[in-house]
Amino acid sequence: MTMHHADIITTSQAVAVFGANGHTGRFVVTELLRRGLKPIAIGRSIERLAEAGFPDRGVECREAAIEDDAALDRALAEAAVVINCAGPFMETADAVIRAALRAGIHYLDVTAEQPSAQDTFDRHGAAAEKAGVAVIPAMGFYGGLADLLVSALMDEWQDADTVEIRVALDSWLPTKGTRVTGEKNKAQRLAVNGGQLGPVPQPAAERVTVLPAPFGRQTFVELPFSEVPLIARHIRTRELHTFLSTTALQDVRDPSTPPPQAIDETGRSAQRFVVEAIVTRGDLRRRILAQGQDIYAVTAPIICEAVQRILSGDVRDIGAKPPAAIFDAASFLRALGSNLRVETSETKSSRMTRGDLTRRNLRIP
After folding, report:
1. Residue 286, domain extent
2. Fewer CB atoms inside 10 Å of the end CB: C or N, the chain?
3. What is residue 130's three-state secondary structure?
4. Are residues 98 and 81 in the same domain?
5. Number of structural domains, the chain?
């Protein structure tokens, strides 16, 4: 089953992009323009923003450093939303969120860092509610995508016995930002064990599974990202664990692995990914697979879809909350159909039934 992209809605409201000249930030600016939105490119250096070609595309550029509250306030002037693409997010998120709250505008970021997502909820929940804005951490490939996939699977279930997520990449050519974050993020990784959020048990568990081509048989090791604090925030489960393919882990830990290389005019790399989420409750097992190309590039349509829904009022809640608490997960995934191929199935005992869950949970006609 392939989901279909929602109609594009054009709005004149401006969307500030902090860290616009980074690898992911450039994808985000391009996607905002494609959707008829008005990006404002923000970075530490106006010269670097110009070198990225933003003025040539009619994109306004503004300079602001994370340490300068006044500059941040000026940079966010007249924006309705700010997207933070500048990691490490443990160093940038708090300052940009505070600036967004001072301006009374919505905030989203693309953090994969568990501590950053958790701190966003804990520090800014009350202020976001009072301001009447959405503050959404991890609205990208890592974090938000898994939260939406698991929530779509849950559907009418109020709780689950287990939630397991497996992320397979045929390669991981890390950006400079990914490397810097990896070097600085030494926090203990968290999972849900026995209904409680706590450290990942050591030694880390492994899984072996067979996935669709080009992946085939894959070995995974438990390595959770920001999806755990997101999902644990609103889904009750005894167990919640995330696994990364060893192929991807070896690449990202190898200092000689090169950065991503563009293979088309959009700037996407050749990297392929598949995210598998499995939710169990009693004797039922629900599974969803999402496949696509380039984890950095696909983050742009994910977060820009969120922005567009916020600007059009297509939200279920406000405040500092996970993506699936703000948006209808099934509808959101349908809107990403040109960027994700999604399949679902349900197993009862030893018998698998395909198709019924897709039509019910995602309301595909």
Report:
1. 144-295+331-361
2. C
3. helix
4. yes
5. 2
